[in-house]
Batch of 2 targets.
Target 1
Amino acid sequence: MFLNTETPRAKELFSLDWEFRHGALDEKEAMDATAAGFSPVNLPHDWSIEFPFDENADTCGSGGYVTAGQGWYRKVFAVSLNARSKRIFLHFDGAYMCSDVWLNGAHLGGHVYGYTPFRFEITNHLNFGGENTVFVRVDNSRQPNSRWYTGSGITRDVWLEAVNEASIKPYGVYARTRRICAEHAVVTVDASIEFPCAEGLTLSSALLDADGVQVASTYTPITGSVAVQTLLVPSPRLWSDKEPYLYRLITQVRDGDEVLDHVETTVGIRSISFDSEDGFLLNGERVKINGFCVHHDGGCVGAAVPVKIWERRLKIMKAMGANGLRCSHNPPDPALLDLCDRLGFLVMDEAFDEWRRLKEKQHGSNTHESRGYSEWFDENYEDDLSAMLLRDRNHPSIVIWSIGNEVPDQTAQEGCLTARALKEICRRYDPSRPVTQACDQICAEPRPATQEFLNELDIVGYNYAGRWRTRSETFYDDDKRANPNWRIIGTEHSSVSGRRGCYGFNEALSEWSKPYYSAPVAIGKLLKFTLSHNYVAGDFMWTGIDYLGESHWPNHLSSAGVVDICGFPKDSYYFYKSVWNQEEPLAYVFPHWNLDEEEGSIVKVLCYTNCEQAELFLNGKSYGKKAKSFPSYGMTEIYGHYDRKVVPADTDDLFLSWDVPYIPGVLEAAGINNGVEICRHAVKTSKRPAIIEAALDAESIKADSRDIAHITVRILDEDGNFVPNADNDVCVSVEGAARLIGLANGRPDSMEPYNARHMKAFSGMLLAVAQSNGKVGEAKVKLTADGLVPAELNLKATEG
Ligand code: GAL
């Protein structure tokens, strides 16, 4: 099968056609050729998501009440005889956790951290022209080892790579924008070369624009293990969050006309800086980072996340107006960073949640035993941090390195020394980006983060700045006065969280939930502060998207996000949209109008709007126009002159509210600018559930056993109105050229497993994910439920 020896470097996906067996086995037993119990899987693979939720699971609430344990993978493969002249590597993007790899009986080595890549040279262990067997043991049995859902298994892709003796080292190309002016940009390329002692080798670099046209090139003789080149790019198109323009860099090692190695790197030309007065500057202009934190799971697929899941989620967040993403609290799947480059997110890439000092892994009961990264920190931090930096440093989207999240070491005397050691590693591999740590103990009582620790950080990162004393009024201001040179960013603050479609009228409020009319008040205060203080570079809300784990039974997920685990927006999504997205007029009204309230009782109705005013109507009757005061607007040029109409405000909050009698019917908000209605949103009291509505987000998928399509399911009444509290049990079948790989409803306390074939709708909705099974042709998606008109969809699976 493998390898294309015609090309100077072959990199082939090695993720398909593995076999898996769950359970602890001794090595001999597992690797016995006759061992039974293995079943076929493709990678990425997460076995934990396949188990039912169990209150007694040793992953605890932190890990999402799933089963972990050990698992074995094996794959039989062949490598052609003519690949013999090459050096061959087996590369893992990530496996959670404590992996060990054997090839043809030889132990290649192990890797602990579940979020960093690792590789082995396998040249001398291969049976060229014959059969080879690779075994991987993944051991996630020491629990609880994380504060969130980790998944278990080879949760990221695996690759086989073949290179010549003279080649570029892994992650050996480092491209950096050095200077930008109107006429040109200067981009340097540092390439680390393997085997540089051969004479007469040259390194060539060519930069291609988005149309594939070469815009700059250079070549230099290779005289040592590092070659440094400079490219002058005329009239550069810059990368930004708004216009994420990308170039492609081709770097080749050559011997005369012969190409010995060929590496492609995505390049975005941009300048970044952080300033103690001006916050974050992108290409010389102040840009506020309106960001969100995100964990690595993809909802119903667990930790084995097809890239289209991220693509859909990021587009949803972008449409809200977000331009920043924090990979909390570990290096992400590399595919996520490619998407951030392409879609224009400003990324904070984070290495660790723990250094030497352990953290509690189960709410309220510290076992005094880590089982997490603190156990491995001393032995591994240098390799793991280096792996993240080398892998990620070419991404234009990344603007900050984070060496940790809320590490308890911030309050310890020696913590500053660890911070310094980690910062120095960042500098070694990438001096172009600043380093932060997300601190939650600044001014904490009784033991605050030490001044030495904070001074060590290029940017002081704040988690929950308003938590202590009167700081929910002043936020960063006290520190800013005391430390005028600090550069400051909000690395983590609560979002307006809660369950989609739940308002706490009659049902008990879950963890994370405040009453719907109160939740945006405190959040709005910080949001306004961040937006109106230039020195605050931005903020990352906790979280953008709900995530598995960090929960209390019977919840198995955290509803901290503004979109749920399915990627469906909650009301709070529109809160941020009304503030961050000024391009699309918005007047969003809620709660839904199928309330279980007595007719005539007074209900608080809220509206998120970016219009000057909004008017509320119930069954056609106006309840009046209202306006918010942010951002308020003053005189310009001369006293008494306003170049914008000033609309009298009703509130200093970032939302409008009316007290309205509950009368079933139609509740509407109209957004008004300059006295003219420009948008309208309505919620209607629906009749009983009658119809299943289903929509695919793609007409076709690739028949590659990897591509996916999302199916959004909504329950409607007989008139086609959405039923916001429908909970019908919907059966989903996918037949033909695709298979169902996950179902989710977004309900934190749902006990239905994500690999079920049927699931109850939650707040009227459900998400199904269908994946190619390798066949070309058509897949039929059928959705049925007792008493409802079914839905049927066709999905094509096409070659290539
Ligand atoms: C933060 C922490 C996050 C998450 C969050 C929950 O302190 O950094 O990982 O635990 O609290 O509110």
Target 2
Amino acid sequence: MKDYIELRSDTTTHPTEEMREAMGSAPVGDDVFGEDPTVNALEALAAAKMGKEAALFVPSGTMGNITALLTHCKRGDEVILESECHIYYYEVGGLSALGGMVPRSVRGENGLMDPKQVEDSIRGANIHYAPPALICVENTHNRGGGTVYDLGRLAGIKDVADRHGLPMHLDGARIFNAAIALGVDASRIASYFDSVQFCLSKGLSAPVGSVLAGRRDFISRARKYRKMLGGGMRQAGIIAAAGIVALEKMVDRLAEDHSNARALAEGLSKIPGIAVDLSTVVTNIVVFDVSKLGIGSDAFAERLSAQGVKMTTRPPYKLRAVTSRMFTAEEIPIVLEKAAKVCSGFLG
Ligand code: TLP
């Protein structure tokens, strides 16, 4: 019996039994010496899944992104990214604090930039400007509501990048959710990018870890930055073992999280006082607005939590529900009933 219904994040997923078994029996070595066979196996598998030459196991998505940015850019370089993307919004300003980079943000629609906006943000050579050095894309886009860049849009941005000689980094924390929504292999999405970070510890349910993938020379340089950031781990095979199970066994079931999110969003949209843009709900994230109730997101989340349903807030008026293995279809009507109850308290 669960204490509460978990919709805060897919980061809350616990490892599966199979992961725990694999972790218990994983062969290990010192990964800073490159001698951990399980980490090496995970990196080879991850590189193959992304269609890249090499990959690097990192403790978190945040470290994967900052490692990539440090490898692509030098101090004073400009990084073009979307204004609500995780690298800009949620990574503690690491690109500037640690890398001396200057973000140039582009306001996308539900997190999605279009190629022309990216092109317009690239400034020509001028003594006053920080030189543009990298374009970052987030797919799926977290704050956009789990929205997905289709391949045409990615090809358009890649075309802009090529014409300006700029490399591209993908924050693909949820690349497999994007791949399922598009009905393509994740490597198709990755093919537009020089580097890709994706998370094992979100919907794929591994307890820890992300992977950065790219060309072999890029990954050997990234390995040095990971060490600088303190991310050189030792017998990391213990956690990499769960990552292998995540990649081999946990990808296809993400479709179930998508259909649960859709059903949840449709139900929420029918509750007086709640507004949901259903067109954005294509993966495992539902963002909804409670401003019509005359209260803020924190007040709504507190009352919902008191009813046993946990979500995160998007202040001032939005909340986010993320579906994962920690949430089942049977819980959808319960969440809808509790949410309606909270709303009715404000509508009189
Ligand atoms: N996102 C977390 C929070 O940090 C907001 C979540 O609950 O969604 N890129 C994207 C697109 C992400 O959503 C996240 C985590 C990361 C990177 C960072 O991954 P971690 O948490 O492993 O550093």
